[in-house]
Amino acid sequence: MKPGVSEKSVQLKNRALCYARVTAQVLKSIFTSRNPADRELRSYFKQHREHGSRDRRIIANCLFAAFRWWGWLKIHPQLSPWERVAEASDDELLKSEQQALICLAAQWLDGIDEDIELWPIWAETAGVPVPEPLSAEADLTSKAVQFAEWLDLSAIPDARALVPDWIWDEIQHLALSPEKVISAFNRRPPLWIRCQHEPEEEVLEELRRHLVTPEASPLPGAYSLGFSHVNLYLLPPFKQGWFEIQDFASQVIGYATGASPGERWWDACAGAGGKSLQLAWMMRNRGRIIASDIRAYKLKDLRRRARRGQFFNIMYKPWERTRIPVSEKTFDGVLVDAPCSCSGTWRRNPDARWTSPPDITHKLATVQYDILTKALKAVKPGGKLVYATCSICRTENEDVVCRFLRENPAFQLQPVRHPLTGKMEEFIHIYPWDYDCDGSFVVVMQKNSNDSGA
């Protein structure tokens, strides 16, 4: 140890450099494997149990912030090898100065100053000045200017560079400024819950008792918890099934179904079952829900969650090949929460901006339409077919629905009350720039009551 350097300082430096190294390693792994960031991160922590809760928080914050601001970070000359991440060697990508710059710049741009004691270490390692924290009022334009000045860049970065080029074609009909879109996507997302216990106030009191402050929304049972660091999964009300973690935009989809007690519903793309659970709650545990997915392991997650929430009206039938796993013309409602680009979740999953191919929406639109044409067979006359995505892309949303309606005249759009505007609308869009949540899309199509065909 150098004279005048305390053991505490050495330990802090070692931790700071460890955080930077791990962040860069997982970043590289995600870029090369194209796996979701949360999955790669879970896998890494499972294999490296030496990291405590604070370590995991700092690494996760650095990683997701790096993806949010990657379009600007990669401009710096030190990070230019990352433009060819698939071919570049570890020696090119994982230099200590690059690792430190990624963490420092990402935290600074993201406004994460709770670990500010690490900044001087990262700055010294990266060979850059220690930046002053950004003010809470700094907008995207101000950040771009200050970023260029701090790192002595030759040009001020463009806001449009923070998302892939192909997304602008998908949303150009909205006539939005790039600053509005990016400002929404590059804010850290809050946690949302859905209460499924009555009286609801009992849930809220329990959360407050554990220093969590719920904030009400226009949707019944939907509460924002902000940026709480409390581990919700360990709280007694969660273990008792009193609430589920579910984003507001996702809850809007379940709300739009209008599912009622005693009905029969098929959740055709159930995944881990967030919407199935919401339907069960709306139906007050009466009636029947069939949950299906091509991934049987996802339905196991749903079984566990349903037991915790004490929902007993859900059955499980995985898809087998291409034939629908349920009886035809027997359901009051069918929900197709279709696989999609997940562009509406880019706040929460910013890695998907950079790991999704440019033609993803067109490829998925074919899949989405195919699922809809299969699922319609399960809708009884007078029943509802609900189509939803967590995408903001027109190709996956309006274009799929319009094609379906042209080729299936037995179905008609049914207006739904928009939870934010209160207006009856045929196409329900939830955008991150309109509310502090993810993005989603949902429509309800009703089958003619006298239709005897498919």
Average predicted confidence as pLDDT: 94
Residue runs with pLDDT of under 50 for 5 or more positions: none
Structural class: alpha/beta
* Helix percentage range: 40-55%
Total individual domains: 3
Shape: globular
Terminal-residue CA separation: 78 Å
Q: Give the helix tally.
A: 18
CATH architecture of the largest domain: 3-Layer(aba) Sandwich
Q: Would you give the CATH topology of the largest domain?
A: Rossmann fold
Secondary-structure map:
Blueprint: H1 7-33, H2 37-47, H3 53-68, H4 70-73, H5 90-93, H6 96-110, H7 119-126, H8 140-150, H9 166-171, H10 178-185, E1 191-195, H11 200-209, E2 215-216, E3 222-226, H12 236-239, E4 243-245, H13 248-257, E5 264-267, H14 274-282, E6 288-291, H15 296-309, E7 314-316, E8 331-337, H16 352-355, H17 360-375, E9 379-389, H18 398-407, E10 411-414, E11 416-417, E12 424-425, E13 428-430, E14 440-447
Parallel strand pairs: 5-6, 5-8, 6-7, 8-9
Antiparallel strand pairs: 1-3, 1-4, 2-3, 9-14, 10-14, 11-12, 13-14
Structure description:
This protein is α/β, with parallel strands linked by helices and 454 residues long. It contains 18 helices and 14 strands. The protein has helices spanning 7-33, 37-47, 53-68, 70-73, 90-93, 96-110, 119-126, 140-150, 166-171, 178-185, 200-209, 236-239, 248-257, 274-282, 296-309, 352-355, 360-375, 398-407, and strands at 191-195, 215-216, 222-226, 243-245, 264-267, 288-291, 314-316, 331-337, 379-389, 411-414, 416-417, 424-425, 428-430, 440-447. The strands form 3 sheets. Strands 5, 6, 7, 8, 9, 10, 13 and 14 form an 8-stranded mixed beta sheet that branches. Strands 2-3-1-4 form a 4-stranded antiparallel beta sheet, with no helix packed on it. It has a two-stranded antiparallel sheet with strand order 11-12. The longest helix has 27 residues, at 7-33. It starts with 6 loop residues before the first helix and ends in a 7-residue tail after the last strand. The model has no long low-confidence stretch (mean pLDDT 94).
